Amino acid sequence: QVQLVESGGGLVQPGGSLRLSCVASGFTFSSSAMSWYRQVPGKERELVASIPSSGGRTSYANSVKGRFTISRDNAKNTVYLQMNSLKPEDTAVYYCSTLRTRRYWGQGTQVTVSS
User: Fold this and answer.
1) CA 29, CA 40: separation in Å to the nearest integer?
2) By the 8 A CB rule, do 4 and 20 touch?
3) What average pLDDT does the segment 86-103 reach?
4) Of 45, 66, 89, 106, which one has the greatest count of Cβ atoms within 10 A?
5) Which of 67, 71, 45, 47 has the alpha carbon at shortest distance from 58?
6) Bridging pattern class, strands 34-39 and 78-83
7) Tens digits of residue pLDDT in 33-73
8) Mean pLDDT for all residues in the chain
9) Please, are residues 18 and 10 in contact by the beta-carbon 8 Å criterion?
10) How far apart are CA 96 and CA 107, in angstroms?
11) For residue 5, is pLDDT > 90?
12) CA–CA separation, 9 vs 29, rounded Å?
């Protein structure tokens, strides 16, 4: 079965950096586009970044463009989200996701940006 396991969240000061990782299993990772979403309590889940199976043309939400970078290592079945210049408004639970017959989600990892 499809499994997505995120890690790398934590507490960081404004201006700091974090790198999230998501290890995938149960499907052909190298043939699958992957995405990162985030959600704040009381708000809808928001698409943050996406990367195609080839790792070519990536896309980002306007709010993170120029600060976040999505990448993947198909040999390790892992997708990453490098987050730089973090702001308090980046505080959220971050989810890794892929679309198969339905959309699958990981369990999420908490990112808190605060001084």
Assistant:
1) 28
2) no
3) 96
4) 106
5) 71
6) unpaired
7) 999 999 999 999 999 999 999 888 999 999 999 999 999 99
8) 97
9) yes
10) 8
11) yes
12) 22
Q: Which two tokens stand for residue 14?
A: 């404004």
Distance from chain centroid for Cα 112: 14
Q: What is the pLDDT of residue 110?
A: 98
Model pLDDT, residue 54: 87
Q: For residue 41, how many C-alpha atoms fall within 13 Å in the half-sphere facing its CB? A: 3
pLDDT value for 56: 86
Alpha-carbon span 31 to 106, nearest angstrom: 18
CB neighbour list of residue 80: distance below 8 Å, 6 or more residues apart: 19, 20, 21, 22, 70, 71, 72, 73
Q: Positive or negative CA dihedral for 102, 39, 86, 66?
A: positive
